[in-house]
Write a structure and sequence with these properties.
Layout: E1 5-7, E2 14-17, E3 29-30, E4 37-38, H1 48-71, H2 78-107, E5 112-116, H3 127-146, E6 150-157, E7 163-165, E8 173-184, E9 194-200, H4 202-211, E10 217-225, E11 234-242, H5 248-257, E12 262-265, E13 269-274, E14 279-286, E15 289-296, H6 300-315, H7 317-339, H8 350-356, E16 358-364, E17 369-375, E18 384-390, E19 394-401
Length: about 400
């Protein structure tokens, strides 16, 4: 059966679906392009509650029928009692199975397996084609790297060290790590990150992770390509030459660029750096209510820019709070009332929707992009409500996640 193209309501990408249900335990599907949650409101047949009620009614009817027959005084063969009891046990299960089969059939067009650009509507899409495209892109990229000249590269290995990825059913994956400060041969030091990668088996990936430690100074033989499909410095690893390089200039430069573990700010107090998330966190107050502040920054310069953006946001906090709520209501109230209500539950009013939202986290980056994350108050069964935007344009998108 051909897959059905549908448009994500948030990013407007044309999402391809296939008639395969991957999991019954996941109540929501997500757009793989922007990760917007496509919940029950997107499902074509909201028959879940009807199925449950049908099973309950049939079960109760079968049990009552069996009990009534057992207590009747009319003559009958002993096997009649057995048949009625078996019917009471088996019939509800059969009805449930048939109902569940119908439910899965109704859901079949709504399982995300890939993304297609809205301008193109050719082919069946699907996971196989998605992985094939990724594999082709990776192979073309490796060809670009392989055509570059071999050089000695010395640099500082960034967190988290070596990571690996593999697409589809391939037996090999791509292992890669970042050099935050690096040089080619004896050339000048550079501070634009260099991504070093190679194709590896699982055993080779384990060996690389053991040899290359986060924070170490490393010397490798690699093919560096400045011009490539990723539009950033990339390198193909040929050989690890040394894992503990003695380079005073490199070490001093890394230390100068290293963000402080703790930063004291007059407005936001103590900011603590999380290396895993590459952000600073602090307990702040937003219009008189406690909130966690996250500043996405991995250098002192980025921290200063993110702090400047956060101050501008806080200076206009009253207006921003009103605009964030308006964006959430505009995009999510109809979603809530269209598919997230319990059976018999009255529609949620805008006042109730706003009252159940609780702001928990505000993220700010050096470019002035902001994100507000709220506890949903069980509006969407425990999913977080997020509103994203930027200082210049205000709130742009609202969605649910998690």
């Amino acid at each position: 059966m051909a897959s059905t193209p549908r448009q994500c309501p948030r990013c407007s990408k044309s999402i391809r679906y296939r008639d395969v249900v991957s999991s019954l335990s996941t109540p929501c599907l997500s757009c793989p392009a922007c990760h917007a949650t496509l919940g029950p409101a997107s499902w074509p047949w909201p028959g879940r509650q009807a199925i449950l009620r049908l099973v309950q009614v049939v079960w109760a009817a079968a049990v009552l029928l069996a009990v009534a027959s057992l207590e009747a005084n009319s003559p009958r063969f002993p096997w009649t009692d057995v048949a009625l009891l078996l019917a009471a046990a088996i019939l509800p299960g059969l009805v449930a199975f048939l109902s569940l089969t119908a439910y899965l059939w109704a859901l079949r067009p709504f399982v995300v397996v890939g993304v297609q650009d809205p301008a193109s509507d050719e082919g069946e899409g699907g996971a196989d084609e998605l992985f094939a495209d990724l594999n082709h892109r990776e192979a073309r990229f490796m060809e670009q790297l392989g055509a570059s000249a071999e050089s000695l590269v010395t640099g500082h290995v960034d967190e988290p060290g070596t990571i690996t990825s593999r697409f589809g059913s391939r037996t090999e994956g791509s292992a890669q790590f970042e050099l935050t400060v690096w040089r080619i041969d004896s050339g000048p030091l550079r501070t634009d990150s260099l991504t070093v990668r190679r194709m590896v088996t699982d055993d080779e990936a384990d060996s690389l992770r053991e040899a290359i430690s986060p924070g170490s100074l490393l010397k490798v033989r690699a093919r560096v390509a400045e011009e490539n499909i990723y539009e950033s410095p990339q390198a193909l690893l040929e050989e690890v030459v040394e894992t503990d390089v003695d380079d005073g200039e490199l070490r001093a430069t890394v230390a100068a660029l290293k963000p402080p573990e703790v930063h004291e700010d007059d407005q936001f107090g103590t900011l603590t750096f999380d290396r895993r998330l590459r952000q600073y966190s602090a307990d702040a107050s937003w219009n008189g209510r406690p909130v966690e502040l996250g500043l996405e920054a991995s250098t002192p310069e980025e921290l200063a820019e993110a702090l400047q953006a956060a101050r501008a946001l806080w200076d206009d906090s009253v207006a921003w709070e009103r605009r964030v709520l308006a964006r959430a209501l505009e995009e999510l109230l109809s979603v809530r009332n269209g598919g997230w209500l319990d059976e018999g539950e009255a529609e949620t009013t805008p006042e109730e929707f706003g009252a159940r939202m609780t702001l928990e986290l505000i993220r700010v980056d050096p470019d002035g992009n902001v994100s507000f994350s709220h506890d949903d108050g069980d509006l969407f069964w425990g999913h977080a409500i997020s509103v994203d935007g930027n200082l210049s344009g205000g709130p742009k998108h609202a969605g649910i996640s998690g």
